[in-house]
Amino acid sequence: MSGQVMPCGPQEIASLFLFEKLSPGQLGRLCAQGRVERFEAGPVYTEGDPATCFYVMIEGTVVLSRRVGGDEVEVSRTSQRGVYAGAMQAYLGDRVPQTYNNSMRVTEQTRFFVLPAQSFSDVMREWFPMAAHLLEGLFFGSRSTQQAIGQRERLLALGSLSAGLTHELNNPAAAAVRATAALRERVGKMRHKLAHIAQGTYSREALADLIEIQERTAERVAKAPSLSPLEASDREDELADWLEDHGIAEGWRVAPTFVQAGLDTDWLEHVAATVAEDILPGAIGWLNYTVETELLMDEIDDSTTRISHLVEAGKQYSQLDRAPHRVVDVHELLDSTLLMLSGKIGPRIRVVKDYDRSVPDVPAYPAELNQVWTNLIDNAVFAITGTGREGTLTVRTARQGDRLLVEFRDTGPGIPADIRSRIFDPFFTTKPVGEGTGLGLDISWRIVVNKHHGSLQVESAPGDTRFQVLLPLTAHDTDTDTDTDTEGDAGASTATATGSGPETTEEPV
Questions:
Q1: Which residues have C-beta within 8 Å of that of residue 260, sequence separation ≥ 6?
Q2: Which terminus in the chain has less CB density within 10 A, N or C?
Q3: Residue 200 DSSP class
């Protein structure tokens, strides 16, 4: 928007605090290269447009705002004479994008001294060379530090996830190795028992009956019910007594295996009625090996399935071989992140999933959302474990108008009110030295707000801290693959968390 050009008086320009120490010759140059413009109430420039001018307010009222998602958020309003805005990084030249990083409007008739960006750059370098060099060093040094530490933050998270995943993979892998060794031993004994049976005086009919019982026993193992410890103990006593009454030596040794397989005295009565009394002990021993091999194969199957799930969760978390931006089920992302972090969460933290499965899929960068979930879960775990007590982490999803809410609630001590407004600032951390970079929430904010056009906020009280992520349900018109490492201000916009029809589960991870 252009204003009405007015005469530029060196004396009036000299009354602005930016220029009060300049010489008459310098003031004359400013007036010659710049101009005074009067704007009526309305916009002056728009965020993202090429930064062509440096503005210093002579009189009036100016409002600066930033885009957050689809909203314009006011960040400053002032009538202070001499305030400035616009192409303030023109002295950096083409080393950074020369666009306005905010929008400016005036609420009443307002006059500015307006200096073209190139003229501003020239006078900065000619009149204040040391200041320009110091500002360059500060700008690029701060950005490089933030990028380096941001990368370090990702590497730390990756290391933590790798350690947790290794631990989680080791348990089922070790179980599969143990079960395989035991299975080899049981199969060897079964072959020995089969040779012993073949050398006996069993009739063809008796062997056929024994094989049929074996098949039915294997079927029972696959359908074994889950018993409480008390129920299992009572059934073991019943089976041990039955085996002893029928002359089976050391029946108490096989009773627990039979109970685990879902066998009971009625089944043993069926076995006794099917085979001759003289071969019952051998039949019981044969069936015991059958049950043990079936149980061991189930254990191997469970372990390898667990490994497969962990590997799939790792792929889901990292989003390997997936499109960087696509429509996703946010619950899949949450589940994969919780599984990847299960080792770090540990047994002292109860995880509750309060999911509303009716919410639709959302357009997103899934790998980067997983990074957000990782940062928020890690902070919650740190808050809970810092109390030295057990606690609860609740992950909730719900629909809120045209947005999806993802909420992480922990029962930690809460965030003190005096630092709550700073937690999204780069490099701010409450963790001990060496344990936190202070960029986790800053990166999360950039991913949610800048890249997904959503919002990230926090509500906190002792025993109830909630980080709430709100994501649009539809793709934004200007979705681009924005670099989340670039410089910029962070902050949280507000939202109210509501929802209905949730599916709540509580599970160890």
A1: 224, 232, 291, 295
A2: N
A3: S
pLDDT tens digit sequence for 476-498 = 654 544 444 433 333 333 333 33
* Amino acid occupying residue 449: V
* Spatial CB neighbours of 430, under 8 Å, sequence gap ≥ 6: 419, 436
- Alpha-carbon distance of 114 to 5, in angstroms, equals 10
Give the neighbor-by-neighbor strand order of the sheet with 42-45: 42-45, 103-106, 62-68, 71-78
Give the residue with greater pLDDT, 203 vs 79: 79
pLDDT digits (tens, 9 = 90+) for 223-257: 777 778 888 888 888 888 888 888 887 778 888 88
The b-or-e profile of 301-340 (16+ CB within 10 A means b, else e) is eebeebbeebeebbebbbbeeeeebeebebbebbbbbbbb
- AA identity, residue 407: E
Cβ atoms 406, 502 nearer than 8 A: no
Helix count and strand count (H, E) for the chain? 13, 17
List the beta strands (DSSP E) in 401-508: 403-410, 455-461, 464-472, 503-507
